[in-house]
Amino acid sequence: MTSAARLMRWIGSNRGRILSLAATLVLAGFVAACGEPDAYPQSTIHPTTEFGRTIHSLYVDIFWWTMGILVVVWSILGYTVFRFRERPDQPRPKQVHGHLGLELAWTIVPAIIVVAIAIPTIQAVFETQRPYGDDALTVEVTGYRYWWKFHYPELGITTANEMHLPVGRPVNLRLESTDVIHSFWVPRIGGKRDVNPIVRKPEGEGQKYTWLFFELEEAGEYLGQCAEFCGQSHSLMRMKVMGDSPADFDAWVEAMRETSPTALAPEALAAAAAEAEGEAGQDTEAGAEAAAQTVAEDPMVAMGRDVFFNQSICVACHAIQGTPAGGVLGPNLTRLGSRTSIAAGMLENNSENLIRWIKDPQSVKPDARMPGAAYAAGGWPATNITDEQIRAIAAYLLSLQ
Amino acid sequence: MSVSTTTETAHGEAEVHHEDTGLWSWITTVDHKRIGIMYFLTSMFFLFVGGLEALFIRVQLFSPENDFISAEAYNQLFTMHGTTMVFLVAMPMAVAFFNYIVPLQIGARDVAFPRLNALGYWIFFFGGLVLNASWLFGAAPNTSWVGYATLTSATQSPGLNVDFWIIGLSILGISSIAGGVNFITTIINLRAPGMKLMRMPLFTWMTLVTSFLLVTALPVIAVALILLAFDRFFGANFYVPAAGGDPILWQHLFWLFGHPEVYILVLPSFGVISDVIPTFSKKPLFGYPVVVYAGVLIGFIGWGVWSHHMFTVGLGPIADAFFVAATMTIAVPTGIKIFNWIATMWGGSIKFTNAMLWSVGLVAVFTVSSGCSPGCTTGTRR
Asked: With contact defined as beta carbons under 8 Å apart, do B93 and B106 qualify?
């Protein structure tokens, strides 16, 4: 007797035990699958937008359809191989060549199921690609190897890697890339959508962008990730969407537009304020604030500012709102001190991590375009700044609250 | 030479024993069975290579922040794993079975073009070596097995990595097209008298469908690779967006090859089990013509679904909806096959040989994968 036949006989005599084991396993699977959303910050099964829910409910519906089909087919298959196993002294089975009615049935029934699945799927395809009207907030998302730029044309602000969005207002995200194809994916919001390099068109023809449309319903942090392989640090190209209440969002926008109190040297800030005062003819608050700074300024912040602007190549790539730093090749650093993470969601934003990043970015993110203190990268020479200077820059950047 | 001896030994074992068995006889052979064995062994070797690559990937993923291999080595390993498994394992493994079995099933002395057959094997063999020679330069392909533009451009990926990939795959494509032409000719022209098309064993039928897919799909990837080679070597701009080229063009060309490729890989297995299941159930295949037509239909519809790998690209709802519908349509002929296989076993006397166990396993597993595919296509791309 073959081992397979022995197995079949064993299954036959232990039917009850096998069934109860299978039931236990299925149950355990369901229990394990029900997690708290916070434990799985990048899961699609806890959607927080209409967009995400449309996709998720489609996923659930099709899951149950397919599970139903699976149970039916596996039951028939299991029964068939068990019932019609070879037995000793069995006569030659009846030679059947086919059955038109049966074959029509198992053509038509699956076809009906396919239609039943296809209709809601195609509806969802159209529902999730409908742009919002003029009341929507448009954000221009640009993918770089390996970080994200977020530009708000209507508000005139630019930030990187942490995109603040107001709850309750529809958003149109316009996506483009500067180098290779990336893909924008924040699983709890919905998506994903590729971030393609823009193809240059002849004069007069419009550029073709890709878009994502959604509306946040709850305040909170939503983690996201580049979802199209884009090079060595693809898996390290993360982002956060910060869902703010409308009031918080407005406050954030206001802060982003103003020059951070420590961004400029106190004298320069005072001069800028005086100039603004001359134009506006009132508001002396900024001047007073600057005067207060003159007294209280941390020497490390002052030194960091000096290194950042005058003794390094930082400003070739980086910009800070309201200062002469206007580089556009790297992430915008305006109010960096108020961000939760650095290096596109890779490191918690604190002094130690900033120092590590500025000194040796390639150890955090291989192939990043940023040079280290002692080595060239991304076409830039080594920054050649000392550890003391790096600590100062970190202090300066963290002061940009 | 061994050609005449092997093909005319139907009546005597003595002649077989006289056959030359040295290394040189294998290198110079044009015998379909020997070439089949060589395809089999070579693809088993590459299976070991691809498996080793997968092992490195898995060890790296064993714990977070693992520094077992560098990011660059990881990219090379998963790119070469994917490329190896598709082009150096799964495809030649199917060709091994075509070679060994099809002439026997249709009563032919050999394939139609035995020398082309041998040439095809050696092109495949050296193509595999060229691709893997990249390891010696520390420059194995590193842009994933789908090699999306513009990551593969000379600006974004300087170095030999992508060059090895282009040249290796181009060489392998020639081998596959030669094989496809050979099997179409063999099956159309060399059947024994009385072996009408609708009497052919299912494995031969699926070989025929697969061969048509080979000769139609492989030229598409060849074109895509040649355009990429022009971009990289001669400064052309087919995929360069800043010059008006379109990186999405690569994706269309790649998947226009890549989806029929899926059926190139799976249809031979369908053919195998469509012959194994009746044999060990001691019954003829249930609904033979329907199983044949379903296979042919899968081959045809397989050409109209490529953009389901591109749902995230942003082609717009109309294109997405079309490819959703076309993809789901494939569930129907696939379902027909599954039910026909089960009906073949129904009422039979099933002998559970290894071949039969694997075949029943395929029916069970394929029910999961094909049943889930409409679900997966709503969210994923590959």
From this structure: no
3-state secondary structure of B380: coil
Residue of B nearest to A8 (CA): B352
Tell me the C-alpha distance between A287 and B368, whole Å: 69
Contacts of A141 (CB under 8 A, 6+ apart): A148, A149, A150, A163, A173, A174, A175, A176, A184, A195
Span B200-220, pLDDT tens digits? 999 999 999 999 999 999 999
Taking CA atoms, B56 is separated from A88, A296, B52, B74, B190, in Å, by 49, 55, 6, 8, 46
Q: Computed over its alpha carbons, how large is the radius of gyration of chain A?
A: 30
Which residues, at least 6 apart from B58, have a Cβ–Cβ distance to it below 8 Å?
none
Alpha-carbon gap: B17 to the closest alpha carbon of chain A (Å): 34
Which chain A residue has the Cα nearest residue B72? Answer: A232
How far apart are the C-alpha atoms of A301 and A313, rounded to whole Å? 18
Q: What is the ipTM of this complex?
A: 0.87
Residue reference for tokens 């064995």: B37
Report the residue from B72, B312, B372 with minimal CB separation from A66: B372
Q: Is A241's pLDDT higher than 50? A: yes
CA A44 to chain centre: 12
User: Which residues in chain A touch residue B375, judged by CB atoms under 8 angstroms apart?
Assistant: 59, 62-63, 66
Q: How confident is the model at residue B378 (pLDDT cuts 50, 70, 90)?
A: very low
Q: Could you tell me which residues come within 8 angstroms of residue B35 by beta carbon, excluding any fewer than 6 positions away?
A: B29, B99, B117, B118, B121
Residue keyed to tokens 């954000």: A139
- E-state strands within A179-218: 182-186, 190-195, 210-215
pTM here?
0.88
Of A396, A53, A19, nearest to A217 by C-alpha is A53
| H-helix segments, A219-349 | 246-257, 266-280, 285-296, 299-310
- Residue B328 above 60 pLDDT? yes
What are the two backbone dihedrals, phi and then psi, of residue A212, each rounded to the nearest 5 degrees? -130, 140
Give chain A positions within 8 Å (CB) of B327. none
| Nearest one of B267, A144, A160, B13 to A152, comparing CA atoms | A160
C-alpha dihedral (B341, B342, B347, B353), degrees to nearest 10: 70
User: What percent of chain B lies above the pLDDT cut of 70?
Assistant: 92
Residue of B nearest to A122 (CA): B321
B47-63: pLDDT as tens digits: 999 999 999 999 999 99
At residue B9, does pLDDT exceed 50? no
Please answer yes or no on whether A84 and B375 come within 8 Å at the CB atom.
Answer: no
In single-letter form, the type of residue at position B4 comes to S
Q: Does A192 sit behind a cis peptide bond, omega within 30 degrees of 0 on the bond before it? A: yes
Partner-chain contact B283 A180, CB within 8 Å: no
Q: What's the pLDDT band for B65 if we cut at 50, 70, 90?
A: confident
pLDDT value of residue B121: 97
Q: How many angstroms separate the CA atoms of B281 and A90, rounded?
A: 12
Q: How confident is the model at residue A36 (pLDDT cuts 50, 70, 90)?
A: low
Rounded distance, CA B311 to CA B37, Å? 40
Per residue in B93-112, pLDDT tens? 999 999 999 999 999 999 99
Find out whether A185 and A225 touch, Cβ atoms under 8 Å: yes
The predicted-structure confidence for A244-257, as pLDDT tens digits, reads as follows 999 999 999 999 99
Number of H helices, E strands in chain B: 14, 0
Q: Quick check: A353 and A340 in contact, CB under 8 A?
A: no
